[in-house]
Amino acid sequence: MADGRWGVVGYRLFQSQDGDTIDCVAAHEQHGLDHPLLRAHAVQTEPPEAPRGGGALSFPSGSATNGSGSGSGSGAGKDSRRGAWQTWHHGGHCPRGTVAIRRTSAEDVLRAGSVSRFGRKRRHRKAAAAAAAAAAAARAAYAPDVITGNGHEHAIAYTAPSQQPVYGAKATINVWDPAIQESNGFSLSQLWVLSGSFNGSDLNSIEAGWQVSPELYGDSRPRLFTYWTSDAYEATGCYNALCPGFVQTSSRIAIGASISPVSSAGGAQYDMTLLVWKDPKLGNWWLSYGDQLVGYWPAQLFTHLSDHATMVEWGGEVVDTRPGGAHTATQMGSGRFAAEGFGRASYFRNLETVDADNSLAEVALDAIQTLAEDPACYDIRKAYDDDDDDDDDGQHSARGGWGTHFYYGGPGHNPACP
């Protein structure tokens, strides 16, 4: 049994090259099922109905050839895209019938400073400021996660709430390892699936992406993460599998595990494709990472999202505690502004949503709005292309069709962002 061994409770475990321990836990014994609302819940063993137009998904495990299903491109030797995967896969995968869980250490809990807050977001959503400009306030009123509070800053694209219900969202994101200045800071890139009141206490949110958080993980590696809440981050939900709720089905993907390799400026770009959607058969909200089904959030966890979503967001978020009285130098994305484009700036490409017929639909460019609270620190630029169009710099794109996409990010502190 190369690179793996049996743990003290009889399950296989892996010691990852990055220092993580990955436990292979029997699916029916996972912590996610301990939620009070899931006492009678049985792990879904019937494959969900995948959205039409999205390709095949492996259930519960399958080939791990690349992380996003994207191929390598060309173009001056630099326009290459490859799939990002997880570091622990160098040791293998968990056996069928088990799920891969990143082990939480005592050091992880101690870094949080509070057991009750461990694995949970610090509540930061605020109502739009009365003094905000009318245009900014109008956009902010639709976007619950873009209201600056407690130092959280964003560069996001979002769909305005409409009468048409939303049943999922998808995007491909390139992965970086941004520098984090504060020990309790983080930088993340994610998608949000949302419903409920944006300035009340009944907001429902499902979130997934990559995150660098020294406080949560003890290092500066980008890691696959999830989050959920049904009460605007007051008392429900948490990151990853740190509290009950998310039910994992994958023996190959460990939420909270590091992603490797990562993109480099002027070099290869490594990206991952995330899809969150509501299974029309059983009603649970599923997550896929590349072509791998990871698990699901049971519909019972939610109020508004028990039926459908009303809004989707994609983009980046950082924490700015103004260390030393100056804006944080924590980077968002690659740490470079959107104008630097492919190979240097971070991107979200092929933005899609899932409709009532369980079909993926490309998001029209004019159907999304963008917002960055302080574009001198972090900014965003949306665009559209297809197989026949030129890219953003006027040169023919060797990347293939990116559909609706955007570049985003920035360095934080700089002469224009004091």
From TrEMBL:
Domain Neprosin PEP catalytic span(s) in chain numbering: 146-418
Region described as Disordered: spans on this chain: 46-98
Official protein name in the record: Neprosin PEP catalytic domain-containing protein
Gene: LOC100279181
